[in-house]
Amino acid sequence: MEKFKNHLITETGWELIETEYDKSQVINSGSNFMTGNGYLGYRGTLAEDKKEDYVGCFVTDTWDNADGKWEELCNVPNGLYTQIFIEDIPLTVKGNKLEGFKRNLNLKSGVTSVDYTKNIKEIGINVSYHEEKFASLKDFHIIPLKMELTLDQDSTIVILEGIDGDVWNLNGDHLKNYQSGQYKDSLFVTTETSEKKQVITVASNVDLIGLDIQNINLIKKDSGIYREIKCKLKKGQKAVIFKYMSVYHSNDCDDPLSKALSDISDINYEEMKLAHEKLWEDKWQRYDIKIKGNLLDETAVRFNTYHSVIGTPTHASLPIGARGLSCQAYQGAAFWDQEIFNLPMYLYTDAKTAKNILKYRYDTLDGARRKAKSLGFNGAYYAWISGKTGDELCPDFFFKDVLTGRPIRNHFNDWQIHITPDIVFSIWKYYQITKDEQFLVDYGAEVILESARFLSSRVVYLPTRKRYELWKIQGPDEYHENVENNAFTSYQTKHALDVALQMVEVLNEKYPGKFQSLLDKISMNDTEIALFQDIVEKIYLPKPNEEGVIEQFDGYFKLESITPAEKIKDRLIKKDEYYGWPNGIAVFTQVIKQADVIQLITMHPELFTEKIKRANYKYYEPRTLHFSSLSPSIYSISAAQLGYIEEALKKFRKSIFIDLNNTNDPISGGTFIGGIHTAAAGAAWQMVVKGFTGFEVFDGKVYLNPQLPNEWKIVEYKVELNGIFYKIIIYEDHIDIILEQVNNTSLVLILNNQQYALKEGQNRFKKGQDY
Fold it and tell me: What gap in Å lies between CA 155 and CA 145, rounded to an integer?
């Protein structure tokens, strides 16, 4: 057994167990112990919990704007609500001390459960209680719940169960016009969203075993419907309560009510659970990373992988939200996190899911075109915050100046243009790994060309300098806006235009007819493509100085240098001041919010020498606050690849424990920012695989350069490249690479700068002998 913070432990590395009910952790526990399947996420609350306990079931493709500013996913009525009364006394985890409390998230099966015993002093009865639930992977619309109850005396119990429509929201009430009723044995609530009038239906039913039912009363309220079931329960007899909740909305089908009722009309709990567990077993065959030597690290990586998976829609091409489906914070929308932090694990383990993620950007291409046009540019400029249509969801005014009370006009939505070349980067990486030319023809090519068109209209040509530059830019470091020639953005822009030119060659050669049809469709000619080439040749890219450091943007080196970055906090007048543009305390200093130049080097390691990588890491790390959950993972990868293993491990743990140890306050300045940090969760895989084992793929070759922490004795994972599965096992004294199959593709490994041909079966490389 190993202990985390906040009463959390693990026993085998496949579970997270909370050993004490702590009301102060109700928000964090609800996030950490949630269940989900990519269509919906149900927070890890108890059946008895209500709105004030942050109960939530957040469903994809239900965006609604209730307050005129924030468009976010809906929290649907709670179809699992159940309160048990024993001799009129409510059974609850609150109040009297519990014995043997255990909240368990089974990472292997995606089942979350709660167990405890309790003495109800008022009536002198001892209760043993168990509940468990899971968001079904077999049927994305269903959440089954099982409760078990045993008493040490004959008792009368009342079960108040139903659908609770009084839900918790961040920005306005999204649901109205409630209609509820009973059909056969099922209850239902149908409602509609306030802005888009989207119909949402929740249905539920209940099955009782081991109880002598006395009577049932139906109770209807404004936003919910309940049944009060009075029963007799004998001493020592186990009562079992099965509940099933089903959710549909009008973006799913034409008749959500019929579908929701049909889904729960005939369910066998154990059969559904068994099918669900088998599907999770299949997922872990692809995604799992074994780390022998540190159980906490291994468990934390699995915890983060689990949350990345349940926040990734696979039923449709929809975004991975920055908080997944754990809450409404960050609107359930896509940022650049989706491609740069979440996608890589799927890219190397599950090409089908990777393709689905990228297809979302094709589906939202028109929204990106509308954004570019609204700002006076051509092509496709992707939204910084993107929902169903791809139109920009990021408001102009995001923060408030706490010193004056005036809103701050930030420019995340019009100057942070790197989102567009980031998408091109990811599409091309997918193509290089999978060789999926059909995806390129059907979807990727149009995204790449329209993105290149936008970038070619966004650059500025300076005749006196005979080069293109990028002005009014905001890079990944969000504290410095309105800069010129941000290195990350400029290199990414050149790369995107270069990709467009390479793709033109590929499609012209292999699919000339289809490619010409695409050019005709988007009205692109040779002159425009020639412009891409001109920009590639003439765009200004900041070069390393004499010390090998790349200037983050023009004039950055002239700003005040403060190291370590944390010293800047001494300048705060109020602790909740915004640090960034236009007049925050970091703006006129070299202190940065998160990885920027290091982000560039980590994404394009092939462009820079070891000397340059080291120089930039040593320069920028002391100047970085890591005030974004994205930042520690990038620095961890960079440090590991440079051999700074202890530093890499420190940042690795800062990233993987952000939710487990609840290192960030879920409520800041009165604003809820809790929930699962989905990008950090996705980055856990990258930190181990790309960081500590040095795995990468370039030009069809597999690169490995493992440098493990001393306490890690074995690291094992799988990757899939061009349809071939590789099992990679790194020991202290050797490496095994096991190929489950081979095809006619030449499989080449570059291990610590030496080249090897891989054969089917086991390939072993010993330290001091083969490398």
Answer: 23
Asked if residues 354 and 347 have their Cβ atoms less than 8 Å apart, the reply is: yes
What are the C-alpha distances in Å from 83 to residues 105, 155, 180, 290?
22, 16, 20, 40
Instruction: Name the residue type at position 271.
Output: E
What is the three-class DSSP state of 751?
A: strand
Characterize 385-417 residue by residue with b for buried, 16 or more Cβ atoms within 10 angstroms of its Cβ, and e for exposed: bbbbebbbbbeeebbeebeeeeebebbbbbbbb
Distance CA 749, CA 702 (A): 5
Q: Is 72 a catalytic residue?
A: no
3-state secondary structure (DSSP) of residue 234:
coil
What span, in angstroms and rounded, lies between the C-alpha atoms of 302 and 320? 18
Return the amino acid letter for 358. L
d(Cα 545, Cα 663) in Å, to the nearest integer?
37
Is 58:38 a contact under the CB 8 Å cutoff? no
Give the DSSP per-residue string, 620-642.
HGGGB---STTHHHHHHHHHHHT
Structure confidence by residue, pLDDT tens digits, 339-386: 999 999 999 999 999 999 999 999 999 999 999 999 999 999 999 999
Which of 478, 528, 621, 720 does the annotation list as catalytic? 478
Q: Which amino acid is at 209?
A: I
Q: How far apart are CA 429 and CA 650, in angstroms?
A: 29
Residues in the chain: 771
Indicate the SS3 state at residue 120: strand
- Can you give the pLDDT at residue 218? 97
